[in-house]
Write a structure and sequence with these properties.
Mean pLDDT: 87
Keywords: Aminoacyl-tRNA synthetase, ATP-binding, Cytoplasm, Ligase, Nucleotide-binding, Protein biosynthesis
EC number: 6.1.1.10
CATH class of one domain: Mainly Alpha
CATH architecture of one domain: Up-down Bundle
Pfam family, one: GST_N_5
Oligomer: single chain
Largest sheet: 5 strands, parallel
Number of strands: 20
GO molecular function, one term: ATP binding
Shape: globular
Subcellular location: Cytoplasm
Strand order of the largest sheet: 7-6-5-17-18
Low-confidence stretches: 158-167, 212-229, 828-836
Number of helices: 31
CATH topology of one domain: Glutathione S-transferase Yfyf (Class Pi), Chain A, domain 2
């Protein structure tokens, strides 16, 4: 294996550093910039790595990744995002900076090019609270980004000054930490020979001059969206946008009011959406809400706008140990606990405007009927096996102790209050019989070890069927990356028989005569709740759940629920052999944290569902911010300061400002009627830009990239604000006829963009969406038209259309208000959140 590098080539910095950091054995040869090392390329490509197989790698990032993987350091999802950002955002900005600084001598101007990417990097580093980009150890992302920035940040005084001026403290600390590594210092010396920027003059001279619009911003780590370089619009795009604009609205309404029960229809896209069933005894916090019900709600609303036939079901998961525990704590029966907290959940989701078609529960006769039917089918098909399990039994209470009914000293870290399934301190999974000094949580007596016979789902016997189905579903459906990775890790580690029974009283009874004292384990029983909840919604439930050729199933959940939805539950349905609908698209989020810690009800840390309405902040603003920071590719955090920033900048100053100005111009200058629009080239260009953003929104939403799609809504309002600012209709209206006509066109186009935004916002902020349409007196058919096909931005408010009363959509969140809320929910006190 041999690595070819050249002096003065900034791309060679990172590969040499990666080689030294990882310690991989590889020869290094220095060649000139002009040498064609890779035989099948017509141009020089350096650095290049000759592999033992005779193949070449000639992407610097691919070479760095290869060295780290060869050293056993796999690239995780966050690392991949940083590498993509470095390639698409940071490298173009750096090349422009080098061109200006090295060839044109414009060091001070060049420094401004990197300002926006450095903002993104600084925000992500400060939010992450980690020593390096992906954790507490150097990753390939650290080496790659350090190598890209080293030539300018280590040599340019103006750029070092920029770091100080714009308070990039986190960037400076991180950069210096990586630069201090001996491997990085050695690589810099070999490539730059102590000459700094001047060492790269020969290399930079041979590169094409980068256009300034090439330098764009991006947000790999939930950073605020930055202004992008303006997209180049072709004449063909403008002509197509004008043709679409002139088509007008659909004459017939596609999105009729829902008629229940909703059933699959021939010739339509039938979409069944489920949200992971929340435990009934827990009041959901913001992380629970965004991970499951809110994400599913946004997608369901979007699907209906697209004309799909959507059924969205959810409900409370009510059986199991946790419910028995809560009942004992509150002096109620399990059923009373379920009734109480089911109402709590329903109230919270109603306030958050979660538009379920049916919100049910698992403590029903239908649950027992369907779960027992699947059980008998598995038994008949010989997919169940018996085995004896050692368990803790309390002789005083005369019962086997389920995991959460016992606590003791952790065998791993000696934490004295570890549960029978997991230690809260070290996080390790525990078998209850491994606990030292165990105690029954009910009577505090020491339990004894006894044997108990249980039934197991024979996952190894179903493994080949599961793998065959998984290959098809993951390749054809939209599974999130974490869902695929978690599922594959379970398969790779080898499936083992999984216990489906428990020695409890509160659960679905096992119908087998030898196990009549037992109930089904919650992770066998709970996913069947999707079926029973649908059965309680409609007696024709099998048209959804035994119809895989006509129905697409979307499951929404947090990542900890993935194995049960991708392995255990599908195996139950495959083994039942009754033509069940299996998941086509498994959508899993990462975790949402609270500020720099975790949500904790007992410590009063974090906002829980029933507290949000008491803050005085509208539910649509909560929805917006949770979706803005939705943990799609990595864990993210709720931050009060960031919520205020996004409300005040994105909602108030960007989105709200544009929509309000557009409507007010119609009211103030044109007596409430949309003026005649005479489209000029500038207007046609804007129509094309807005149409492109709409297409991107639809493509992302179709792939359930909910957070990323939101960016394109905000981009449209940014385009609109700039359009108004450049054309100044408030001035032109006071001038001659041509200028007044121009003011009319700008106002008419703007108010039509506002109408489009109301439709695109509907899945995210349904109340605000309706308010905008009410203010614009928008026809219902605008809802049916805009999201058809790849996106249809038409003139929905034609000349002469009378709008309604316009008023501001959002209010500023003041600093003292936010500080008070942060203190209130920061663990200073414990709240009684149950009396709702």
């Amino acid at each position: 294996m041999k690595l070819f590098v050249s002096e003065g080539n900034p791309h060679c910095l990172k590969v040499l550093a990666a080689l030294e950091v990882t310690g991989v054995q590889c020869g290094v040869q220095t060649v000139s910039h002009e040498e064609k090392v890779v035989p099948f390329l017509s141009r020089p490509a350096l650095p290049a790595l000759l592999l033992p197989s005779g193949q070449y790698l000639f992407s610097s990032n691919a070479i760095c990744r290869y060295f780290f993987e060869a050293n056993g350091q796999e690239c995780n999802n966050l690392c991949n995002q940083w590498l993509e950002w470095e390639t698409t955002v940071l490298q173009p900005a750096l090349l422009q900076t080098l061109h200006m600084a090295v060839l044109q001598g414009k060091g001070s101007e060049a420094s401004k090019v990197l300002q926006s990417p450095l903002n993104v990097l600084d925000q992500s580093l400060s939010k992450g609270n980690m020593s390096y980009l992906t954790g507490e150890a150097v990753s390939v992302a650290d080496v790659v980004l350090w190598g890209t920035l080293h030539p300018v940040l280590s040599d340019s005084p103006s750029l070092r000054f920029l770091l100080a001026v714009f308070y990039h403290e986190s960037v400076r600390t991180w950069f210096d930490r990586v630069a201090a590594l001996h491997s990085c210092q050695s690589a810099a010396q070999k490539v730059l020979q102590g000459k700094g920027l001047q060492a790269m003059k020969s290399y930079v001279q041979k590169q094409p001059a980068p256009p300034s619009s090439q330098c764009r911003d991006a947000q790999p780590c939930n950073s605020s969206p930055a202004e992008e370089g303006e997209r180049v619009v072709s004449e063909e795009e403008m002509e197509a946008a004008v043709n679409t604009w002139s088509k007008g609205l659909n004459s017939t309404s596609l999105a009729a009011d829902k008629q229940h029960p909703i059933l699959p229809q021939e010739g339509k896209r039938n979409v069944l959406v489920t949200s992971a069933l929340p435990y009934v005894n827990n009041v959901p916090h913001l992380g629970n809400i965004i991970g499951c019900v809110l994400s599913a709600d946004v997608f369901s609303r979007y699907g209906r706008l697209r004309g799909w036939n959507v059924l969205f079901v959810c409900g409370t998961d009510e059986y199991g140990t946790a419910t028995e525990n809560k009942a004992r704590e509150e002096g109620l029966t399990p059923q009373q606990i379920c009734d109480k907290y089911h109402a709590v959940h329903a109230s919270i989701y109603k306030w958050f405007q979660i538009d379920f078609d049916f919100f049910g529960r698992t403590t029903t006769e239908k649950q027992t009927e369907i779960a027992q039917d699947i059980f008998w089918r598995l038994h008949q098909n010989e997919y169940l096996v018996e085995d004896t399990v050692e368990q803790l039994r309390c002789e005083k209470c005369q019962r086997f102790l389920a995991d959460r009914f016992v606590e003791g000293m952790c065998p791993h870290c000696s934490y004295p209050e570890a549960r029978g399934d997991q230690c809260d301190k070290c996080g390790r999974l525990i078998n209850a019989v491994e606990l030292r000094e165990p105690q029954c949580k009910v009577c505090r007596q020491t339990p004894v070890i006894r044997s108990s016979k249980h039934l197991f789902l024979d996952l190894p016997k179903l493994e080949s069927q599961l793998e065959q189905w998984l290959d098809k579903s993951t390749s054809s459906g939209d599974w999130t990356l974490n869902a695929k990775q978690i599922t594959r890790s379970w398969i790779r580690d080898g499936l083992k028989p999984r216990c489906i029974t428990r020695d409890l009283q509160w659960g679905t009874p096992v119908p087998h005569p030898d196990f009549r004292e037992k109930v089904f384990y919650v992770w066998f029983d709970a996913p069947i709740g999707y079926l029973s909840i649908t059965a309680n919604y409609t007696k024709e439930w099998e048209k959804w759940w035994k119809n895989p050729h006509q129905v697409e199933l979307y499951n929404f959940m947090a990542k900890d629920n993935v194995p049960f939805h991708s392995v255990v539950f599908p195996c139950s349905l495959l083994g039942a052999q009754d033509n069940y609908t299996l998941v086509n698209h498994l959508v899993a989020t990462e975790y949402l944290n609270y500020e720099d810690t975790k949500f904790s009800k007992s410590r009063g840390v974090g906002v829980f569902g029933d507290m949000a309405k008491d803050t005085g902040i509208p539910s649509d603003v909560w929805r917006f911010y949770l979706l803005y920071v939705r943990p799609e590719g990595q864990d993210s955090a709720f931050s009060w300061a960031d919520m205020a920033l996004k409300n005040n900048s994105e909602l108030l100053n960007n989105l709200g400002n544009f929509i309000n100005r557009a409507g007010m111009f119609v009211t103030k200058f044109f007596e409430g009627c949309v003026p005649v629009m005479d489209l000029q080239r500038e207007d046609k260009k804007l129509l094309a830009l807005v149409g492109w953003e709409l297409q991107q929104y639809i493509q992302l939403m179709d792939k359930v990239k909910i957070r990323d799609a939101l960016k394109h809504i905000l981009n449209i309002s940014r385009h609109g604000n700039q359009y108004i600012q450049v054309n100044e209709p408030w001035k032109k209206i006071k001038e001659g006829d041509p200028e007044r006509q121009r003011a009319g066109t700008v106002t008419g186009v703007s108010v039509n963009i506002a109408c489009l935004l109301s439709v695109m916002l509907f899945p995210y902020m349904p109340a605000v969406s309706q308010t905008i349409r009410d203010q614009l007196n928008a026809p219902q058919s605008c809802i049916d038209t805009m999201l058809q096909g790849t996106g249809t931005f038409v003139c929905s408010l034609s000349a002469g259309h009378r709008i309604g009363t316009v008023s501001p959509l959002f209010q500023k969140l003041e600093a003292d208000q936010i500080e008070a809320l942060k203190k209130r929910f920061g663990g200073q006190q414990v709240f009684d959140v149950y009396n709702v």
